[in-house]
Amino acid sequence: MIFDIAYSAWENCGDLRARRMRNKDFTYGRQWGDVIYDPVTKGYMAEESIAMRTGRQPLTNNLIRKLVKTIIGRYRAIRNGANDEKSEELKELYRLNHLEELDCRLLEEFLISGCAIQRVTVECRREGKVETFVDNVSPGDFFINTVKDPRGWDVQLIGMLHDMSLAEVVMRYAHGDRKRAADIRKIYGECNMTYGVNEPLGMGDVSDKEFFVSPTGRCRVIEVWTLESCETLRCHDYNTGEYYECPAEQESEINAENARRQEKGLKLIDVLWNITTEWRCRIYAPNGEEIDSFVSPYAHGNHPFVVKLYPLIDGEVHSFVEDVIPQQKHINRLITLIDTIMSVSSKGALLFPVQSKPDGLDWEDFRQNWAACGGIIPYSAKAGIPAPHQETASGLDAGASRLLEVQLQMIQDVSGVNNTLYGGELGGNVGIERYERQIQNASVTISDILETFCDLLRQRDEKAMSVK
What we know:
single chain
């Protein structure tokens, strides 16, 4: 049941994953892949294929990548200039997990997809030490129930996909039990360890992932956390004055203790039945078989994920990159148009009347003599026949150059990343105070994105400090 619900949540996140892949393609320069209707073939084709079929060479002027790097650079500058008031424990967490670098990569993901997801766990990963670890989670591996609260208080199901070696799956979930280890090996069959060498390096995920299928030689493990109701007993021990809460399964033990105390004339334990909630984790194999199940082992009693979806108005996610893609596409079309106009314009074509061609010279001789420095071309001038002349068109672009300037300005207006944040020169008469003030004013437009991201980091730090 829970497995089916998790799969439905994964399916519902499909549109978000598809939009993320498109945003990522535009960010890293693959900007002619949108599929559109072709009126000639009456089918759907990639824009690049249609452009090349019509004789145009698709060109790309990737401004989105520059915008993203500028905001990340601005975030680094703000962070480096802030006072470091972290506790020693929090400083150790940052040092252990290299969080300053990890957070910059998370910000890049946040700008591209509008999703910032981290997982805070307590594990034994190196040197036999149990420590707190923070990991970035790709939205391509993530699923969640429909949420509308920007604080994430309406999350009831959350999880992610893992791709592990068979040895790691057994190590994590056999819990030292040989039978459990044998059952896990039976579930995954003969899964050869490849250490990820069959996975492409450099280009990452080139398509949407499958819920049930992992890369060759890896085991798909599905981690699902659900918020569930459970019965508890609120106990007040009048003999010791202690107040505590325990699972309902301990009711028989408490009744036996009260019977013993009643015989001895001691004060009893007052018990109040109650319903509360708890986070439970289930680990599934891709065939739906449950490998492991446990209540949240963390001190905060919550799931290990920290999630920020932007802006989440009515549950919608819209990233920074998504806002500037229309301008980027228009810029690419304009520079392609200008390049096409220039390529088909006349450039020094020689118009030579056939009637004036002297005997003994072929057209190749004319071409070489015309291009040679100080060359001489003898010809017989005849009445009514124009003299040879060279044709050079100016390559009029019908206003495309002006439109390109407008689009370049619009992409700055839409993104809020202008020449000041780029570090452009403002002139020699601009003082340092005025320059800093202009940088602050320019940062106002992107401050909402950065403050939202910083709120996630504050939530992450709080969860990391209360995880054990």
